[in-house]
Every structure is written in C-alpha cells, then in structure tokens.
Amino acid sequence: MRILVISGPNLNILAQRDPKIYGGVSMAEIEKVVLERARDLGVEATFFQSNHEGAIVDYLQGQTADASGIIINPGALTHYGTSLREALVDTGLPVVEVHISNIHGREEWRAHSVVAPIAVGQVVGLGWRGYIYALEFLEAHIQGG
C-alpha cells in the first residue's frame, strides 16, 4: 500500500512560521515520524510539497496510478484550490485533509475548505500529530476497517 503525503504552499517553512499557530516542528521532522509510523503499519509513504497548485496537480496526475490513498495539507489552497480539488477527485482515491492549526477556530474565511466535501476525513488543530492520525485512519480505511 502506497500513500501520498502532499503539502501545499508555505509548509516547506514550518518551524519558521508563527510557532504559536504552527508549532516548532519542521516538515522534515514530520516526514521522519510519518515514515517511522508508516513502516510500522507496512505502508509506503511518499512525500511531495509545492508552493504551486499546478505542480501539485501534475504530481497527482503522475503518481496516483500505483497509490492507494492521499493525505493532503493543502495550505492556502484549502480555500480556493478548485483545480487541486478536481485533480483529487479525478484520482478516485480516498483523501484525508490535514491542517496543523484549527482552521475552524481562526479567521472565518479559513473555515471554508474546497477539499473537505470530497475527503473521507479531515484532521484539524492537532498539530504535527494530525499527520500520524491521518495515516493510521487512512490505512485502516483502505483495509476496510
């Protein structure tokens, strides 16, 4: 089982962004713990990050043929990334949306997600651990549990 873990704009600078909102853990550190948990679950996790919506769409179109599911933190694309949403739908794969901060407890505009309606789940506000929870849920979901 192969799960794509995709991160959108500005997630490459985690640990440099406002630590009160995003914490002090870098994307490299998140990838390390997700890879460890994936190994425990017998899952292959593949990571991709881009600040450009089109690059993420291209990645999805090129990588989903042998993938089983997608974990995505769309970053700012959450609120307006309609081509991203369409690309996610086109994969036919189960998607779990992740956000480090609680997007529902911040500015009103952040609460709207174009991805949430097509996702099997959404993990918000649980910090970097949300990636682990998303991985565990998605693995069980794919297995039928």
Topology:
Elements: E1 2-7, H1 19-22, H2 27-41, E2 44-49, H3 53-63, E3 69-73, H4 82-91, E4 95-99, E5 121-124, H5 129-143
Parallel strand pairs: 1-2, 1-3, 3-4, 4-5
Question: What does the model show?
Answer:
- It is a single chain.
- This protein is an alpha/beta fold and 145 residues long.
- The protein has a single domain (2-143), classed as Dehydroquinase, class II (Rossmann fold, 3-Layer(aba) Sandwich).
- Helices cover 38% and strands 18% of the residues.
- It has 5 helices and 5 strands, in the order βααβαβαββα.
- The chain has helices at residues 19-22, 27-41, 53-63, 82-91, 129-143, and strands at 2-7, 44-49, 69-73, 95-99, 121-124.
- α4 links the parallel β3 (69-73) and β4.
- The longest helix is centred in the first third of the chain and has 15 residues, at 27-41.
- The two termini are 15 Å apart.
- Which CATH class applies here? Alpha Beta
Overall number of structural domains: 1
Q: Sheet bearing the most strands, described?
A: 5 strands, parallel
DSSP summary: helix tally? 5
Work out the oligomeric state of the chains in this entry.
Answer: single chain
Under CATH, the homologous superfamily reads Dehydroquinase, class II
User: How does CATH name the architecture?
Assistant: 3-Layer(aba) Sandwich
How large is the radius of gyration?
14 Å
Shape estimate? globular
List low-pLDDT spans: none
Q: What level of helicity do the residues show?
A: 25-40%
The CA-CA distance between the termini, in Å, is 15 Å
User: What is the structural class?
Assistant: alpha/beta
Strand element count = 5
Strand content: 15-25%
- Strands side by side in the biggest sheet: 2-1-3-4-5
Round the mean pLDDT to the nearest integer and report it: 93
Give the ordered list of helices and strands: EHHEHEHEEH
Predict the CATH topology.
Rossmann fold
